[in-house]
Fold:
Amino acid sequence: MLRTLAVENYRSLRRLIVPLDRLNVITGANGTGKSSLYRALRLLAEAARGGAVAALAREGGLPSVLWAGPEKTSPVSLQLGFSGDEFGYAMDFGYPVPAGPPSMFDVDPEIKRECIWSGPVLRPAAVLSDRAGAAVKVRGAGGGWSRVHGTLRPYDSMLGEMADPQHAPDVLAVRELIRSWRFYDHVRTDAHAPARAAVIGTRTPVLSGDGSDLAAALQTIREVGHHEALDEAVDAAFPGSRVEVMNHGGRFELALRQHGLLRPLTAAELSDGTLRYLLWAAALLTPRPPSLLVLNEPETSLHPDLIPPLADLILTATKDIQIIVVTHARPLADALTKGAIRHRLDVNSIELIKEFGQTEVAGREGPLDEPLWYWPKR
Structure:
């Protein structure tokens, strides 16, 4: 389980170090940095897939995402990291050092440092793999260092290039850990949303990011997953209702049978809020739980009456999954806090505020109130 998330010099996150628990709720007013924290997590996830630099480019490049306030660091440095029960990982982006003839890629971000360590805090004795520039060294079973042959390109992460089960098992372990993270962000529910269409159905233990395989995902839960929890979640939100999946020659279509109606309503007929709730049910009750599930504003388009059932659905999933909920809806945060008492769970509530353009954690008086964290030096 992740214990700490750290971000430095990313958008409004000048330096933000937050503790994590089994269930984490990130709240705050508009513009306080919730979306920046969510994007920072996604950027970390892209590193394990070799796409961190491309992800930065989609955000406008390094100049667009760097901290824009006073006290800018020199040299330029954007740092992201996390630590957990087993491993910690950090990466540091910067600009290339000019060398040779001018290039049109001279403002492309480069990965300056990467570090993997054991345990929750970076210490020299705990470092397992260390990348400085193009060079990577790994610690052997006897505690000695060995340099990995070859040079790493400045835009490639060692997570994607050096994950060798024999010579760098910790790199492989961290890569697979991060790759298991799952994100859901504003899944479409409009009239032309993929979730409303009938599609070829196959076993689907993991709901896709666009929700196009919703019917297959719900049927998979019914056959090999927590089907009782699915029925309870639907009944709690829509009393007397039941999800059905209709099979039209191999094409699966979602339907909701409601008390008093002579026929079930198909996905095309469901309201945006009803469809979104069923999408969250499929994501949270997955038969293949990820190590981390991140929901960004799941309350969007939901009727207020659906907030308590959604909170119960999230709390049910927390038994198998570490969850981060990013929300600006106080009713959802309150419902999670109240429901956690029934589920005998703790809720790690983090309220973000902005002071002088910088995102801070509300109620934190200074560095002594934040988790212990050290960045690898360049």
